[in-house]
Amino acid sequence: MSKKVLVLIEIKDGKLRNVSFETLTVAQQVAQGGEVSAAIFGSGASSLVEEVNKYGPHKVYVIEDETLTVYTTDGYTQALCQLIEEIQADIVIMGHTSIGKDLAPRVAARFDAGLVSDCTAVSVEEGEVVFTRPIYSGKAFEKKVFNQGKVFATLRANNFETTEKDVQSEIISYHPVIKDLRTVIKDIVRKTAGGVDLSEAKVIVSGGRGVKSKEGFKPLQELADVLGGAVGASRGACDSEYCDYSLQIGQTGKVVTPDLYIACGISGAIQHLAGMSNSKIIVAINKDPDAPIFQVADYGIVGDLFEVVPLLSEEFKKVLV
Ligand code: FAD
Questions:
Q1: 270 CA closest ligand 1 atom index
Q2: Rounded to an integer, what distance in angstroms lies between the CA atom of residue 93 and that of residue 104?
Q3: With a 6 A CB cut-off, is 96 part of the ligand 1 pocket?
């Protein structure tokens, strides 16, 4: 049965997040011929509509409200709830980002609806939309089907193909009533500046306690720069104060699914694997041939990371730079 699907488009640093394109592509599939709408919030949103159009939503709702330029839970909740009512969406999808993780459960609760979070696959089986998500830190997967009410879902970045569609979307300027905001953002202080976003990076070079110092991360950063990727870390490296906790990957850190994950001096504890074992290709560099990381690695290099990593940078530079 065809569905009305609404996608929340996210903007980060003035650019659309790639996970929003993945979400739009999934929306086309689950709509089963029904209407796909996209919502884009904040001042300056209209300048990004053309890019949203490329992924073929039938309608793009532009909510150019200044109070929505920076995310606040109550502002976005009010705007999204009103839009969902307006278009009578059956399915609402967004990225499993910090915004999606915060917003989706709150809005779902307002509609007394089901939420399936952190989906890594979505399919349509005999007309039913099936959402798949990892459980028990990625050791098993559960499939969820909803047979009544609205459905809310968040999608894990880097797990879905994006397909551009040659459709001219209808652009609608929408004006929800935003009132009694309890949160006012006065200033944003960033912990890290620039660089590739870890959660959406296609290549991650990650360092563990084997990196031994802050300085030890330099060759990893260089390799990441050559490959156009981001640097991540194990909790071992963060606990040892070699890097900031914002880089931590794992059960209590970020969950990533890059095309290429290069683990350097990381033993491969289960809590670390929980955050990266779904990466498409895993390369492990470790001087201990019995390190558990080699059990999940597609390619293993037994050796000293301080010798291996610079050699990799040198070789990749020859072909990529
Ligand atoms: P180690 O286990 O000390 O491994 C260092 C590795 O470096 C070794 O394998 C060694 O052979 C290798 N090495 C040393 N020198 C070199 C060299 N020169 N060249 C090559 N290799 C070298 N961990 C996470 O990562 N993420 C999480 O989210 C997380 N959450 C946790 C939650 C809980 C509740 C608990 C209890 C733990 C959690 N941990 C997490 C911690 C986890 O159990 C491990 O302690 C941690 O992952 C170990 O980090 P590591 O592999 O960098 O360090």
A1: 43
A2: 8
A3: no
Residue 82 structure tokens: 């009103």
Q: What is the ipTM of this complex?
A: 0.99
pTM exceeds 0.95, yes or no? no
Q: What is the pLDDT of residues 93-120, one digit of tens each?
A: 999 999 999 999 999 999 999 999 999 9
pLDDT tens for each residue of 220-242: 999 999 999 999 999 999 999 99
Cβ of residue 266 lying under 6 Å from some atom of ligand 1: yes
Q: Strands, DSSP E only, in the chain?
A: 5-9, 11-12, 15-16, 36-41, 59-63, 91-95, 114-119, 121-125, 128-135, 140-145, 151-155, 170-173, 203-207, 230-233, 260-264, 281-286, 299-302
- Using the atom order of ligand 1, give the atom closest to the CA of residue 237: 52
Angle, helix 305-320 to helix 218-227, in steps of 10 degrees: 20
Q: Residue 282 corresponds to which amino acid? A: I
